[in-house]
Every structure is written in C-alpha cells, then in structure tokens.
Amino acid sequence: MKRPVIAIISTGGTIARQSTDPRDTVDYAEIGASIGGRDLLAALPAPVRARFEVYDIPFSSCDSVKMTPARWLQLARCINDTITTRPDLDGVVITHGTSSLEEAACFLDLVLDVPCPVVVVGAQRPASAISADGPANLYAALEVASCPGAAGRGVLVVANNEIHAAQEVTKASTYQLETFRSPDFGPLGMIEANRVFFGRATGYRRHVGWPGEDDVRDDGMPRVDIAYSHAGADGVGIRAFVAAGARGLISAGMLPGMCTPAENVALDEAVASGVVVVQGSSGYCGGVVRRHELRQRGILASGHMRPRQARILLILALMTGKNVDAIQALYDMP
C-alpha cells in the first residue's frame, strides 16, 4: 500500500520549542531552545512515522508573535511552490505557533487555491513538557492532510483531535489544550480511533487570491489597525492610527458592534479622509450586521469575522484593489 506523501513546513512556535525543565509550560518561549521539523517527526512512535512519507521543509523558527502578513505571504508562496514542484504530494502540514495561528490560517485560506489539503497545527505545551500535545496534534494533522475528503475544504486547523475551518476558528484559552474553537458553527470534523470524520461541510469560502506583487514587505503592505472599544473611549487611538497612515481600520466594538459617541466621531472623520472602516465586535461569537446607521455613515460590517481575521481580509482586499462593495460582500458570507 502506497504511503501518503506529506510536506511538513515548520515555522516555529510552542510545538517546536523545548525547555530543560519538563514542568515548564510558561517560560520556555524566552529561555528554551528551538527544534526542527525532523525533531517533531522523531517524537512520534516509529509505527506512526512509518505510515507517512514526509518531506521536511524548514521555513522559520520564530515565535508566532513575530510573524507578519508579509511573512505569511512568503509562506503561502512556499506552499504553492512545494505543491507545484511535488505533484505526488497528498497534503501539506504547517506547524505554527498558536498565538497568531488563527490569523495565519485565515491569511493562507484567503490567498491559496491548491488541490491538496493544507493543515495548520500547533501546540499548547512545549515538546519537553509532561504530556506534550505536539506529537498527538502532529499525528492528527498528518492523518487529515492525507485524507482525500479533506481536499477542497480550504485551509484547515487541527488541534486536540478536532478539525476547524480556518476562517471560523479562534484561540479561546491561554494554556488549556482545548483552546481552538469555532464558536459560531462548531468544528468541521474530528479524528477518532485513527480515522478522520467530517460532520459538516462549509457552504462558502471567502477567497481574495494573490495580491500579485512579486516581493511584498511589511512596509509595502497597506496599514490596517484594530481599535478596541471600551466604556469612555475618546477616539484618540483611532485618530492616532489614521495619523500613522492607516488605510483601513477595524473597530472592535462593544457587542453587538457599538462604539462610544466620541469613537463614532473619530470613525466618521476616518471615513471622510478615505480610510476604509469596518465595524466588528470584540465578542467571542456572533456577527455584526451592516445596519442602517453603518450604511449611512459609509462604514462596513465584519459579519462573522472576528477583528483579527477581519483585519487580514481587509489588508488583502486593499492590496487586490477591491472596492467597498466587493469587500462587504466578502464580510457578508456566513
């Protein structure tokens, strides 16, 4: 029987860190050491490794708080090039730190259009910790990446034996293993008894496509910031973002997508100056509707996208030259 051929592209993060103390699940990021993709694979039992033919591609070894949209675009190109040059691949697994994993997965899903499964996976505990979750998550990711039924579903996030859609998932807990959740619609499926099950399909997929620039750097990408609303907020932060050159703003408003009067004045000033403003919510779940007031003020609504993912979409939409109606149509998807 032919073994599935899987490319593992490693980018660092908790899954690729180790400490000298097996009890350490906090300080390893600053005082620990990095390990590579081969080391991650070596942590799996030999019978598990024997099930897959793995193609190891080191990409980076940094914490995910150091990742940027420009680096994710480079990662997307790496994935694309890998699949193009290796037509025998059954799937691709990306190991990534969990702090910005939901943004990375969303970014990749918005730009990639590939024939085989792409799975993003991380860990809550370093490789050296008691009951490290990295090996189990990696094994589950390999199973999903080699599953024919995973193709055509967009980029997937696998953690704690659950399969999530990239644009629906969020990190909900700082340290607990059950951290990645899809609060509005739930996981797409699960890995159970060494089998991959999909319980539902996604009837949509937001897709922006490639920005079309050959060498994009962070200083060349449109600046899009997130303004977090709170009682008594005076709009100073919003004006500071605009003054810094923001071309887009995501307003993480109070539920169900509301801001203080002073913030609304600052947002209206931003719209008048040509900044694309998207009203979102700081809540864990639920969407923001483009109600009459927002339409009248020329402000878009983020729909079911959380602020960090709404920002990713707006960056890419601005880079690809989409107008506000096209951008709103993307946010309006469930």
Automatic annotation (TrEMBL):
Domain Asparaginase/glutaminase C-terminal: 223-330
Organism name: Komagataeibacter oboediens
Matches recorded under Pfam families: Asparaginase (PF00710), Asparaginase_C (PF17763)
Keywords associated with the record: Hydrolase
Active site location: 14
Signal sequence, start to end: none
Every L-asparaginase N-terminal domain range: 6-199
InterPro entries (alphabetical): AsnASE_II, Asp/glu_Ase-like_sf, Asparaginase/glutaminase-like, Asparaginase/glutaminase_AS1, Asparaginase_C, L-asparaginase_C, L-asparaginase_N, L-asparaginase_N_sf
Family membership noted in the UniProt record: Belongs to the asparaginase 1 family.
Protein name in the entry: Asparaginase
Keyword Hydrolase among UniProt keywords: yes
Top-level taxon: Bacteria
